[in-house]
Design a protein that fits this description.
five-stranded parallel beta sheet, alpha/beta, 16 helices, 12 strands, Rossmann fold, 2 domains, 401 residues
């Protein structure tokens, strides 16, 4: 075990020498100040979890020899007990360890429980998919933090070199005019719509800033890793069935939400309806799609199909040539609110938010015909800089995190 620890420390030193982005994500401060013994960072692939771990390690006041980074997908950990490794590191003076790709370790859940119960060491750990990390047994023991793709606010902070605040949901509905002016006034060029249109295509995944010309290729690589490695391994999906998952993604890319019934969607993909529901759950857990239920299902069983969306507008760039502008707008809205807020679709308008606000998504000329008789109803409009009364700019929902 000492040889493995020595090798892990050598790799850690090499990784510490790599240049890290100066920009720190919205989770950095809460994680750095968290008193929790074990802390999980979960989310989709490619959104910067490893970078966040390294930033936490670089900022730690502890001596570097008492800190360590490991990735469980490295071959040297293939036959190594995660608990035994962390125990040995702790006995050698280890006080903080960051464990990347923890779901690649054998029996990782039991190892984490044992570390929590028996060792005096602080642990941050990540998983590329929320599938096995977010379960009641784990979440009761540890501090769990979801890392989302870059928000529109974060992208502006990076590209415009400006500090911008996060706003709570209620403030966006009740004070949106004031907030929109505050944000635009902080931008040097004042061109919020230009930046928003760019964000719908690029910038949600931090690797965009490494090489913008390779962004679409990197998204495709990320999708394939999720399908062929994460989902195939966790759910024991046969290689020939992975193509059906990809076909489902492509079908969602070129059809409007609810344009196809579940029966027709299953037929288009070439799978049974039961398998379709299973695949939808897999892709939703892996944060490649989002499914929204009808608000009536809160109270009773209803024969209403779920609305299915790609998880972020940037995925359209990799999966289809032509995008429907209405679907793109709705996809942005869904990606901005989930998973932090409750979202259902409705018959009048588009969405019910937090069981309080009813909204319809559209362009700058979208009317209120469907919403006039509904209390707390709003039109969320694309292509406007500042709203008025019950009309709110779509871009503003990129400031929820």
């Amino acid at each position: 075990m000492k040889d493995i620890i020595a090798n892990a420390k050598r790799l850690y030193r090499l990784k510490l020498n790599q240049t890290l982005p100066e920009y720190k994500r919205y989770l950095f401060n809460p994680l750095q100040t968290s008193p929790a013994k074990l802390t999980a960072i979960y989310g989709s692939r490619g959104i910067g979890k490893t970078t966040l771990l390294m930033q936490l390690l670089q900022a730690s006041p502890l001596p570097k020899e008492s800190t360590l980074y490991i990735s469980c997908d490295h071959p040297m950990f293939q036959d190594v007990s995660l608990f035994d490794f962390v125990e040995a590191f702790s006995q050698l003076g280890g006080a903080l360890i960051c464990i990347d790709e923890v779901h690649e370790a054998k029996d990782f859940e039991q190892a984490l429980k044992s570390i929590y119960d028996f060792l005096d060491i602080k642990v941050y750990f990540t998983g590329s998919s929320a599938i096995q990390l977010v379960n009641p047994d784990l979440s009761r023991r540890y501090s769990m933090h979801h890392l989302a793709p870059l928000s529109f606010r974060e992208m502006l902070e990076i590209t415009q070199q400006v500090a911008l605040p996060v706003y709570p949901l209620d403030a966006l509905f009740e004070q949106h005019e004031q907030i929109a002016h505050e944000v635009i006034d902080r931008l040097t060029d004042k061109k919020i719509l230009k930046h928003f249109q760019q964000f719908l295509s690029v910038g949600a995944y931090p690797f965009y800033f490494e090489d913008p010309s390779k962004y679409v290729d990197r998204i495709n690589e990320t999708i394939n890793l999720v399908l062929h490695q994460d989902l195939a391994k966790i759910f024991q999906i046969q290689p020939d069935k992975i193509d059906n998952l990809k076909k489902l993604l492509l079908t969602l890319c070129v059809t409007k939400p609810l344009e196809l019934s579940m029966d027709k969607l299953a037929s288009t993909v070439g799978i049974t309806k039961a398998t379709l529901y299973k695949y939808i759950r897999y892709l939703d857990d892996a944060e490649l799609i989002r499914h929204i239920t009808h608000e009536g299902k809160r109270f009773a069983a209803m024969r209403k199909s779920d609305k299915l969306y790609l998880a972020h507008p940037n995925l359209f760039e990799a999966l289809c040539l032509n995008q429907n502008v209405g679907t793109l707008r709705e996809t942005f809205f869904v990606s901005a609110l989930l998973p932090s807020y409750r979202l259902h679709y409705v018959d009048q308008g588009d969405f019910l938010v937090n069981e309080t606000y009813q909204v319809e998504i559209g362009g700058k000329n979208k009317g209120f015909e469907q919403l006039n008789s509904i209390e707390n109803s709003y039109v969320v409009s694309d292509d406007i800089e500042v709203g008025f009364d019950r009309r709110i700019p779509l871009w503003l929902f990129g400031f929820l995190r």
